[in-house]
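During the no-cost extension, the postdoctoral fellow (Dr. R.K.) reprocessed legacy sequence entries with the updated structure-token encoder. One reprocessed record is reproduced below for audit purposes.
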Amino acid sequence: MTLSMKGAAVMLAALVSVAPIAAAAETMPVGLQNAVPALGTTTQSNNILLAMLASPGPLGGNSGPLSNGLMNICHRSAGGCDGDGSSGGGSGGGSSPSTLKFPSPRGTVIFEHQWSSGDIPSSWGTPGAGKAGTPFAGKKFRLGGRPDGRFKIITDPETGAKVVDILVTRQDEARTRTHHTEIEINNVSEWYKGRFMVPGRRYLLEIWRKNINYRADRKWEIWWQNHSLYDNSTEKGRNPLLSLGGDRKGNLNLLVRADTKSTTYKKDGLWVYTRNSSYRLGSPESSAWTLWQMEIKVDPRNGALHLWKNGKLIHSEENSPVGYNDRHGPPWAFGWYKYFSGSNVDSRQAYIGPIRIQRL
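Re-encoded structure tokens follow.
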């Protein structure tokens, strides 16, 4: 049976429901607010019913045909979205690619970048160089926060491609007393102008990444974040609406937040969100090139979120709250967000390859 996209959306809306989620303590680390469900279990009652796609693409857009109707292939917060162990998202990615290429576009490409030697000033090879918000050469990227570590362009020996080498160490943190080593796509003004990530529309964010000599750590960390943009001066600094990284037990950890209120407030010292969820998604890759692809629709009542790792669908939800009640954003930052206090590692290093954003 072949269903239209409109028909699939109607069926999904009727079948999917999301249970209320308790607010988290503001004093706890960003990556560990909620008790995380164990692999193969869920704290919510809903099965996520998805349309099988030819390759990672929009479930509610116009670029991917449905095949064989709807199939119950993903139980959200289980350790993967395919019961038979096969790829749920189609082709793309691999542990040892000869090149770092993306699959064929599924929508309109609005940003794509292959790194070159002139993308990052040479002074940023020194820990602490640069000021938060400073644009990289060409202004395609900027610092997401004052860097503790260093950034430099190198040639990856595995693929021969130019990539960004990002390193942060325990010594860097001790010197600067901060913990951000992240870069963001473009200037914030571009997000305010609606060039990227307009709330209510679907986007596919894609990035090639390789963690260097990665091993599990007892201290949380974040590799990827989507931040909110303030609508007015009364709003306070909220947690990112989405983050992906590692938890204290060596698991890949995804956090998703939402708030239907225009401004998030605290009650008894705690942020009060509509949603504050955390999911374990298996073990992080160690020293392997990984293609991460995330489809996101920011809507605090009726959003969507689908995450692929090397073409395999590992998290999926449709018609669920995703993000805050904001007019703009959210900007996308990647690199390292790491505390070394209490950690059993002394450094974190990664290579960042090509990046692409598509409007679906």
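The longest strand covers residues 312-324. The longest helix spans residues 5-15. The remaining legacy entries will be reprocessed before the final report is submitted.
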